[in-house]
Design a protein that fits this description.
Elements lengths: L3 H22 L6 H14 L3 E5 L2 H11 L7 E4 L5 H9 L3 E4 L11 H7 L4 E7 L8 H11 L2 E5 L7 E2 L2 E2 L6 E5 L13 E5 L2 H11 L20 H10 L3 H18 L5 E3 L14 E5 L2 H10 L29 H9 E4 L7 H12 L7
Parallel strand pairs: 2-3, 2-4, 4-5, 5-8
Antiparallel strand pairs: 1-9, 6-7, 8-9, 10-11, 11-12
Helix pairs in contact: 1-8, 2-8, 3-4, 3-7, 9-12
The structure holds pyridoxal-5'-phosphate.
The site of pyridoxal-5'-phosphate (PLP) has 15 residues, from helix 3 and helix 4.
Length: about 375
């Protein structure tokens, strides 16, 4: 699904130089590399303020806390996401409420979100899942009318745009993950919060560093969640390659979209406004998903499932409030989805081999 060895070869010299620079600097936490990264990532993702933190989950928790969203507050989100999205809401002390997905895109469904709204709703957290921008303008309108916050989980969407505008610039803040498999990955854990608001950024800077205002003064009880100098320096080497890598992912996706033709296999739809899909993952659906996965494995094609267990079936989340009409589209997607290899270092002949393997899956008799 990923080939880090190909990637490492390509970037070895500049990354070693960056590591050496940090080692020789003698400054390892919250120094010039983090400042440089925050400036450069802000320019890349179109946000005036970036705060480097320990990982993507902390970025969401810290942002929620910076908005003073906590105990007694509800945040509506999707049951089809990484567990970290919902765990961040729980860790902020707030209550996640789960809305269903749109089965054509697997993204949060607006009418379902509307059914979940209540007097305690403080925010809607959209997830730009698989690298596809959610319909943020519609969510912006809903949140504006209700005077609640829109929050963007951009962990899978570096380089994605909605109507030409980068994701992460539509809500109160965005959370980014630089987990190694992401479109922009570090060589360890890393994350960032981006925002157009100076006050949210200031609160996040305090929260990431024990809630410290000036040295040894802690007006709030924060976290220890600081992006370290080494990961910041490595990310600075990698940022200039992001657009090219997203372009390579898009080319893999184009080959899949043109080449996969099977009556039992469906592809997710991409509305024209989400045209700049960042293709973090390429996901198809098939009612006989497990048989398809075995068929691919027999032909040497790796695949994964994102996600086999929707959030409301995870032990700590079984009690969570949800759309009164249920979450059956998320259930259906979780039972049928399959991610096939999609990364910038996949060669055209390897992509073609995946297409051939999918197309040779025996058809159902029905
Ligand atoms: C949608 C989504 N949100 C949040 C996260 C959390 O990021 P991290 O692993 O950096 O904490 C991830 C990473 O898996 C993710 O995919």
């Amino acid at each position: 699904m990923n080939d880090f060895k190909r990637e490492t070869e390509y970037l070895l010299a500049p990354q070693l130089a960056a590591c050496e620079r940090v080692i020789r600097s003698g400054w390892y936490i919250l120094g010039p590399e983090v400042l440089g990264f925050e400036r450069e990532w802000g320019m890349q993702c179109g946000s005036p303020h970036v705060v480097g933190v320990g990982n993507g989950m902390d970025a969401l928790e810290i942002g929620l806390r910076a908005l003073a969203i906590g105990a007694g507050d509800e945040v509506i989100t999707t049951p089809l996401t990484a567990f970290a999205t919902v765990l961040a809401i729980l860790r902020a002390g707030a209550t996640p409420v789960l809305a269903d997905i749109d089965s054509k895109t697997a993204l949060l469904d607006l009418p379902s979100v509307e059914r979940c709204l209540g007097p305690r709703t403080r925010a809607v957290m959209v997830v730009h899942l698989y690298g596809q921008a959610a319909p943020v303008d519609a969510f912006q309108a809903l949140c504006g009318a209700r005077n609640i916050h829109l929050i963007e989980d951009c962990a899978q969407a570096h380089g994605a745009r909605w109507e030409g505008k980068p994701v992460g610039t539509f809500g109160a803040f965005a959370g980014w993950s630089f987990y190694p498999t992401k479109n922009l990955g570090a060589l360890g854990d890393g994350g960032a919060l981006s925002t157009g608001s100076e006050s949210i950024a200031a609160a996040a800077r305090q929260l990431r560093n024990y809630g410290q205002s000036v040295r040894y003064q802690h007006p709030v009880a924060g976290l220890n969640s600081r992006l370290d100098e080494m990961q910041a320096a490595l990310l600075r080497v990698r940022i200039p390659h992001l657009q090219k890598w997203v372009g390579a992912r898009r080319e893999v996706a184009r080959m899949y979209t043109d080449g996969i033709h099977h009556p039992d296999v469906r592809l997710l739809s991409i509305p024209p406004q989400a045209e700049r899909h960042a293709h973090h993952l390429f996901v198809l659906t098939c009612d006989r998903r497990d048989a398809l996965q075995s068929h691919l494995a027999e032909r040497g094609v790796e695949s994964l499932i994102h996600y086999p267990v929707p959030i409301h079936h995870q032990q700590p989340c079984r009690h969570l409030q949800r759309d009164p009409e249920g979450l059956c589209r998320a259930e259906q997607h979780a039972a049928t989805c399959l991610s096939i290899p999609c990364h910038p270092f996949l060669k055209p002949e390897e992509t073609q081999a995946v297409i051939d393997a999918v197309n040779s899956f025996p058809q159902s008799r029905a």
